[in-house]
Amino acid sequence: MSIFDSIYQNIAQRVVDQLSSRLMGEENRHIVTARRYRLGAHPAQLRVGPQQFDDNLVMNFAGLVVARGVSQLIGRGVSFDFEGEDVTEQELYCKAVWDANKQEILLHRAALGASEAGTGYLFILPDGVIGADGKLYPRLTALDPAFVTIEHLPEDYEMVIRYIIQYKFSDGEREKARRRVIEHNAPEVLEDGTQTGGNTWSIIDSESDANGKWTEVGRSEWPYDFPPIVHWQNLPAIGTPYGESDIPYDVLRLQDRINYSASNLSKIVRLFAHPMRYGKMIGQGDSIQAGPDRMPAFSNPDAEIVQLPPVGDLAAALEVFRSQRQAFFDITRTVDIDSMADKLGALTNFGLRVLYQDNLAKIATKRELLGDALEETNRRLQVLAGMEPVPCVTVWPDFLPENELENAQQDQILNGLQVKSRQTIAEERGLNWESEQARLANEQAQGDNVGAAILRAFEQGR
């Protein structure tokens, strides 16, 4: 095992150690396993005896799929389009909150956690971060899904009644566990059938001692009909509030087989990179110097040097590895760029979209789910600020590469048909129409001045 493998193993192990035994349910066990794989801490596929060379390789496609999915989802930024033509106070406020919380890195972390675990969480603290304008804004933080448990009504998994955040920590002297329960306060039903109170949330903080005894250390009321946590599914799942990970168990098993194939290929290459030879009837074998650039000669007519042939079909083994790699990207609905390297120059925009069709559908689903969560977060931020909420929609840019020459040709055709203006074309290309028009007019004026000067010089016989 290399030093890097040891580092990855230690990082993943710390996550396991921090999880309390109460939270090590099926969902949390998968999160721990998925995090190990994403970080490259994969189990060795070949046994290594004492003093033996370690041929185990890790081809971390699981980490690549997660990283690529997060980049496609968030990499080009996220913006919000609020209702109405004019910029409202609510829109400016939400933008200030996101800016104060470093929107880009916050959403990358949240999307990474959701992709790995299957479920993402944003926690809203009413006051906690100072913006660029010096004002105090709510703090948004991406919770680690490994420490969160969701409880819901038995008959309705969409009706969440309790979030539990639980983890271990050390106070410098001994290890403790901390638990925060965010619990829904149901309204009380009176004898006449009417309801009173309730529909708010309570936040209860507890700590445990070395004996596992829990002691309440704080309690506060959250006087809103929504909790301070917004959660969403990374990919849809039925019968549970938790979503589906980008790297579920079947994908991780395939990752193990890829590592097994890669490790065996590495071992074959190591053993047969320099062919093994043995001699017959050549006398003192220890005194012979042999190598790729040497040819020993012997006077013994019966002397012979024999080379051991490689064992197995390396080409077939390599093809098995390639088919497993392709299956991995197919199952995870991710485009393997290496498989189309020789076609990139000939791909049109239409061809790219056909090639990315399944990948696009997957990212579109993830954007729908995360977009709803972000829009709900904006609504709650406005309520916390005492504002009348203004609805918004999440705006996602296209992450696909495009053939710019093909786009320019299409724009030229549409402009010629008078169905698309030059101003629209300029704005779609990120150009400022007014400033570009002024510059073009200035260039034309300068060209006219040069032409007039040449004409005058010609007329004067210069």
Task: Walk me through what this model shows.
- The protein has 462 residues and is an alpha+beta fold.
- It has two domains: 1-272 and 315-402, no CATH class; 408-459.
- 42% of the residues lie in helices and 20% in strands.
- The protein contains twelve helices and 14 strands.
- Strand 2 and strand 3 (136-142) form a beta hairpin.
- Helix 8 packs across helix 9.
- It starts with a helix and ends with a helix.
- Residues 18-24 have low confidence and may be disordered.
Helices and strands, in N-to-C order? HHHEHHEEEEEEEEEEHEEHHHEHHH
Gyration radius, in Å: 32 Å
Question: What is the global morphology?
Answer: flat
Mean pLDDT: 82
Low-confidence stretches: 18-24
As a percent range, the share of strand residues is 15-25%
Summarize this, please?
This protein is α+β, with helices and mostly antiparallel strands and 462 residues long. The chain has helices at residues 3-18, 26-38, 61-74, 89-100, 103-117, 249-272, 314-331, 349-355, 357-384, 404-416, 422-428, 433-459; strands at residues 79-82, 119-130, 136-142, 148-153, 156-170, 175-185, 188-189, 195-196, 200-208, 214-222, 229-233, 277-280, 304-307, 392-395. It folds into two domains: 1-272 and 315-402, no CATH class; 408-459.
Could you outline the blueprint of secondary structure elements for this entry?
Elements (H helix, E strand, L loop, with lengths): L2 H16 L7 H13 L22 H14 L4 E4 L6 H12 L2 H15 L1 E12 L5 E7 L5 E6 L2 E15 L4 E11 L2 E2 L5 E2 L3 E9 L5 E9 L6 E5 L15 H24 L4 E4 L23 E4 L6 H18 L17 H7 L1 H28 L7 E4 L8 H13 L5 H7 L4 H27 L3
Antiparallel strand pairs: 1-14, 2-3, 2-11, 4-5, 5-6, 6-9, 7-8, 9-10, 12-13
